[in-house]
Design brief:
Elements lengths: L2 H10 L3 E10 L4 E12 L3 E3 L5 H7 L2 H19 L9 E5 L2 H5 L3 H12 L6 E5 L8 H13 L3 E7 L6 H4 L6 E4 L1 H4 L6 H16 L3 E5 L4 H9 L4 E3 L7 E2 H9 L3
Parallel strand pairs: 2-4, 4-5, 5-6, 6-7, 7-8, 8-9
Antiparallel strand pairs: 1-2, 1-9, 1-10, 2-3
Helix pairs in contact: 3-5, 5-6
The structure holds guanosine-5'-monophosphate (2 copies), sodium ion and manganese (II) ion.
Length: 254
């Protein structure tokens, strides 16, 4: 079977799982998680996105797959809603540009919210700068419609794409994610450190929340906090993990 055929089957028979990676404040409080897809393949074991995302993008299967991710994340939010501490968590979902560009994207998201009953204010959609390369008007209209439902937005991998800063102010953005490429240069490359400071400063001036990803060391965390980035995500706080392990870590205080 080709990977494409196998992916069709995977979507039809629910072979995907979400792993959760925590996002932690300078006060060690977990405020949310990013959900990352994995494929529980019937013979090859647990596959990482690297092994199937490109094929999913090229074949358009990223669209039903992305919808599955969104629905699974919203179902989880609704399961957490009555819980004394878990109800505070936000979930960040990666949205592919191809998925976002579909005419019915806003409609589909709205339907998922209705089906699951999830609180839209706990849902964060991670977009990439590629959405600012073309069809900017479409991006603005859709983001405003979704923001109107109460959904929040994060610009993923900030500074690594080709986006135009002039469009930044026209989007209803809530958050910027400092890419791990920058974070991994902390302590190694003074010029990159200055770029990070500039990104954080810009985010603060625009009143955007800032999250750093790929944080692996205390040195990186200290630098980020010192320069005003108070939320971090990365292996030093935990790998992306199945929901049960994530919940256990939450209950044991990280
Ligand atoms: O942990 P990790 O190897 O999961 O992720 C690798 C890449 O796959 C990242 O760039 C991430 O954005 C992407 N990815 C992970 N999960 C999803 C998903 O649910 N949807 C989309 N579109 N991309 C994802
Ligand atoms: O969506 P995005 O491309 O930002 O996906 C995040 C990717 O970074 C995922 O593949 C995730 O597994 C990975 N990741 C998360 N934390 C760390 C980290 O501390 N170090 C490294 N190298 N990768 C990380
Ligand atoms: Na992401
Ligand atoms: Mn990223």
């Amino acid at each position: 079977a080709t990977l494409e055929n196998e992916l069709h089957a995977a979507i039809a028979s629910d072979q995907f799982v979400l792993h959760y990676q925590s996002q932690v404040t300078a006060d060690d409080e977990v405020v949310g998680a990013e959900v990352l897809i994995r494929w529980q393949h019937p013979t090859r074991g647990l596959l990482q996105p690297m092994e199937f995302i490109d094929v999913a993008e090229d074949t358009g299967l990223i669209i039903p797959m992305g919808l599955w991710v969104l629905e699974a994340a919203c179902r989880q939010l609704q399961l957490w809603a009555p819980h004394p501490s878990l109800h505070r968590l936000t979930l960040a979902v990666n949205v592919s540009a191809r998925q976002f560009r579909k005419d019915d994207f806003v409609d589909q998201v709205q339907k998922v919210l209705v089906r699951t009953g999830a609180n839209p204010s706990k849902l964060k959609l991670e977009l990439t700068e590629s959405l600012l390369q073309d069809k900017v008007a479409d991006t603005i209209v859709k983001m405003n419609a979704l923001a109107g439902l109460g959904i929040r937005f994060s610009m993923d991998d900030f500074g690594t794409g080709y986006s135009s800063l002039s469009y930044m102010t026209q989007l209803p953005l809530d958050q910027i994610k400092v890419d791990k490429f920058f974070v991994h240069s902390i302590g190694l490359n003074p010029k990159v450190e200055l770029i990070i400071q500039t990104i954080i400063g810009m985010a603060r001036n625009l009143d955007l929340e800032i999250v750093a990803e790929g944080v692996e060391t205390q040195g990186q965390r200290s630098f980020l906090e010192k320069h005003g980035c108070r939320i971090c995500q990365g292996y030093m706080f935990g790998r992306p993990q199945p929901v049960a392990a994530f919940e256990r870590a939450m209950k044991s205080g990280l």
